[in-house]
Amino acid sequence: MKIDRLLSIVILLMNRNLIQAKELADMFEVSVRTIYRDIESINQAGIPVVTYQGANGGIGLMEGYRLDRNVLTDRELADIFTALQNVSAYGGGEHSLLMEKISSVIPPSKIDAFRSKTTQLVVDFSPWGINSPLEERLSTLKEALDKSVTVTFEYVSAEGQATLRSVEPYTLVLKGQSWYLYGICTLRQEFRLFKLLRMKTLVKETRSFTRQDLPAKGLPWIAEMTREPSLVPVVLRFTPEGKHLAEDRFDYTELEADDKGGYRVSLDYPEDGWLYGFLLSFGTAVEVLSPEHIRLKLGEMGAGIAAKYGCS
């Protein structure tokens, strides 16, 4: 939209001394003639834009002109910038222009303090190493979301069942360090949540759809947060050799030293597949003291693992 382009041009001019018309034209994928018409519209709106001729010329704002930013405090701007910066670390790299816009309204005398505030908190959910397949899926889905076109993919459920899905994408959700797609599944004829890591052969189609309003209630990532889980009291004992694992996973207030040089931990957990995987991740460093049925289940799982590797 033209109004979006005009606002973006104004912000860029506020953040740079000079910028070439050709650079703006390439950035917004319009002609140089269109950029000069935009500059005239900006001037008519009362924002003083000056064009300098020559080899070192370009387009810039009249010296001393700055946007009135009283609507937001320095702290609020820094918080917004930090949030965008953290989102950009994992699948949100397109926010760089918006971050530049925010930086542009900070006076030079306060820019050092602003940068200091924006480096005080880092939240990075991206995995260690390269995760290019997931990044490719995110990029494909973002394009489909922008154009409101359907996507198809083979989806493997938690039970291992594979089905071909055609989905009208609505929302990308980052929940618990995993990405999900929320949209209308044409197979089920309702909103469904799909984990990106379970998708195969993702394809962006050309068929467009009319976006509806999201359901007012029952959004799965919110419903899961507010659902009261069924919890089981679990008592763990960490060996002296496994104390560092306990200290890395639990708060010090949850650790109780025992008479054998290890730790005792008593917490409530939902009994599901995650719990058993969590307990097995500690290997022989932990022993479940109670409840008895979880001890027995872990023993059976351990015996199965030992048998798989030929251990008696």
Automatic annotation (TrEMBL):
Gene3D superfamilies (UniProt xref): Winged helix-like DNA-binding domain superfamily/Winged helix DNA-binding domain (1.10.10.10)
UniProt key word Transcription regulation: yes
Keyword Cell membrane recorded: no
Species of provenance: Paenibacillus wynnii
GO MF terms, alphabetically ordered: DNA-binding transcription factor activity
Domain HTH deoR-type stretches: 2-57
Pfam families linked: HTH_11 (PF08279), WCX (PF25583), WYL (PF13280)
Protein name (Swiss-Prot/TrEMBL): Transcriptional regulator
Keyword annotations: Transcription, Transcription regulation
